[in-house]
Structures are given as structure tokens and as C-alpha cells.
Amino acid sequence: MEFLRPDEVWVRSEVAPLIRFARSRPIASTGLDLFGIAGVEPPAQLIDRLRSFDDIVSWYGANRPEFQAAAERLKLPFRFFATLPGPGGALHAADFFAQQVGAPTPACPHIEFSGVEQHGAAVLHPFSGSPRKNWPLARFEELARALAAEMPVEWAARPGELRFQSLDDLGRWLAGARVYIGNDTGVTHLAAAAGVPTLALFGPTDPRVWAPRGARVRVIAAPTLEHIDVPATLRAVRELASE
Questions:
Q1: If we measure between CA atoms, which residue out of 33, 40, 89 comes closest to residue 58?
Q2: pTM value surpassing 0.90
Q3: Is the domain of 237 the same as that of 171?
């Protein structure tokens, strides 16, 4: 998106604070989430705003034929792009999105955070959007005990705990870590984008497509996450932390 030099970026509310290169607006505040729904008339203010743009590059609505039909009927300047790489390919998702808009590749997301406090801890994040992408919690805890003898250890989250009110706050805190260890999840990508030495643990998903990118990113991948043991993970963390 930054490559396009947009006037505005409309995104999910939790992502909006991470946009540094343009004005950002939460989609929910625009009414766009109601666009194309049968029997719902789009607000005139929304239509006027959409018509004020010369070009609207959109992944939002790309899988909703009714959304696209409404945009065409109202003669709005949308260009829709696929939201996911095709199955069976090995093109990294970042490059997939970059190629869609003509941006150079390989693409390596980076976010600058101000006011970072260097707490120097090893940060562990044991969750993701799917239980099957989670390294067993008992192994995270075993890793934490081993690391505690060498450096401070912090958890980005524990079961039933919410430590941060926004992704911006979380990213700023992650940027002060010595090393980060996590599953295939958005928080792991946020750590890598913040420049933290990042170890990503992959099982059922393809790291060729979904691994975080960065000069200080490593991936341990196995057919299932149960195949990844603590000693191998501990070695990788030590190597990352010493770089």
C-alpha cells in the first residue's frame, strides 16, 4: 500500500494505528461494511467520498459479487484484487500483494515505532488464529524456563490475558525485545516488521508463503508442530539473540 502513495487507507480498526504513510480510517467508521448489502442504501456521504477518489485499489469486497456489482452500478473507481495467493503456489504473500500493484519485490514489511523502551526480554507468544498452528503451550513454558537462566522472559499474552490495548502499543513493546518466539500469527509478523530478532514456528502452513520477513528472521518448520522440540528451538533462540 505504501508504494501506491495513497491519500487515505481504509482498514480494520485494530490495524489503523499502524498506518504511518497516509491518513487511515477504520472501515467500520465509513459505512463501507454495509456497502452492497441487499436492501441497504449506501449513505450519500459515503458515495460522495468514494467518488472523490481518482482510483480505489481494494482487496476489501473482492470476494463479494454484490459489493462489486454495487460499485459498478454506481460507477465508482474501484479496482479489485485477489485477497489470497492461489493454492499450490510458493509465491510469498508479501510478493503476491506487491506484484498486484506493480511494487518491487521481494517485499519486506517494516514499521517504525517511536518511544521504544529497550527492555531486552525474550518475548513469547503462544497463540494464533487456529489451535492447529500453535506449538504446544507446555513446550513454550519449558522454553521459557530454559531461557530464564540467560535473559528476562516476558509473555505477549497468557490464557485469558489482554496486556495491550492496541497493536501500536504491542508493536512498540515488541520493538524493545531482545528476541521474539511465536507461531504463525499476526503478532509474529508484527515483531518481524518492528525489527526484532524473530523465530517463527510453522507446522501446517507453508512458510514459503506465510513466513514473516526480515534480516533477523528465522523459521523452524515441521510437518506438525509436535515435531519441533525444545532443544532445537532453544538453540535457534540463542543464535538469534547473539546476532
A1: 33
A2: yes
A3: yes
